[in-house]
Amino acid sequence: MATKAKSDTNEALKQLTYLASALKAPRITEAAGRLADHARDAGWTHEEYLAAVLDREVAARNASGAQLRIRAAGFGSRKTIEEFDWDAQPAVRQQIASLASGGFLTEARNVVLLGPPGTGKTHLATGLGIAAAHHGHRVLFATATEWVTRLTDAHRAGRLPQELARLRRYGLIIVDEVGYLPFEQDAANLFFQLVSSRYEHASLILTSNLPFSGWGGVFGDQAVAAAMIDRVVHHADVLTLKGASYRLRNRGIDTLPSIRTQDTAD
C-alpha cells in the first residue's frame, strides 16, 4: 500500500511539473513539494493548500517583475526609503511613509521635493520610485536636463506626440534637479508639454533646490513657469527639506552660497 501511495505521489509530481512548465510558472513545482508535508501535517484542505502554493508563485513573480521595473527605470543609484537617514529630516518622515504606500499613484497625484543641495531629495525620489516599482508601476528616472534632451530629440524627429503618449503609459516619471541649469525657451516649452501631458493622467515626482518663486528664472518665462507650477501643484504633495548638505558634514562648512538666504517654501 505504501509503495502504491509513493508511486501515485511521484506521478502527481511529474504531472504537476509538466503543468507548471506549460503555465510558465516553474516555481509552482518547488512550492508544491515544499508545502506538501506541512499541509498534510497541519490538516489543510485542498483549497488551502492550492491557495498557499499559488500565493508563493504570485509573490515570486511580483518580486521578479519589480526587479525588472527597477532596472528599467534608469536610477542613478538604488536608494531605498529604508536606507534614508531620518535623523536629518524627521519632519517629512510620516509623509514619505504615506507616499511609499503608493496611493498617490492611483490618484495621479504628484510629489515635489524642495530643499537645498545635499538634503536627500534625490534619495527620497529614488526610494519612492523603487517603492512604486514594487507596487507594480512602471517608472522612469532622469534629471530635468536629460528629460529635455530626450524631448528635444523626439521633437526634431517629428515624434513628440508619440513620445508623450508613450510616456503617459508609465505610472511614475521622476524629474530630478529642476533648477540646477536654466533652459532655453524651446526647452522650457517642451518640458511644459511633458507636465501638461501627464496632468491628471499619471504621476510626477520633481526635485528642486529652488522655491517655486525661482522657477521663472529657470524656464526663462514667468508665464510658462506659472502655468507649469499650477498643473504640478494642483494635485500634489509638496515637501520641504531643510538643513545643511549631508555631503558637508564634519567639513566645517554649514551653508552653501546659493542657499544661504533662501526659504524653499516660497
TrEMBL record:
SMART domains: AAA. GO terms for molecular function: ATP binding. Pfam families: IstB_IS21. The keyword Nucleotide-binding applies. Keywords: ATP-binding, Nucleotide-binding. Residues 107-239 form the AAA+ ATPase domain. InterPro entries: AAA+_ATPase (IPR003593), DNAC/IstB-like (IPR028350), IstB (IPR047661), IstB_ATP-bd (IPR002611), P-loop_NTPase (IPR027417). The keyword Nucleotide-binding applies. One of its GO terms (biological process) is DNA replication. NCBIfam families: IS21_help_AAA (NF038214), PRK06526.1 (NF005098). Belongs to the IS21/IS1162 putative ATP-binding protein family. This is DNA replication protein. It comes from Nocardioides glacieisoli.
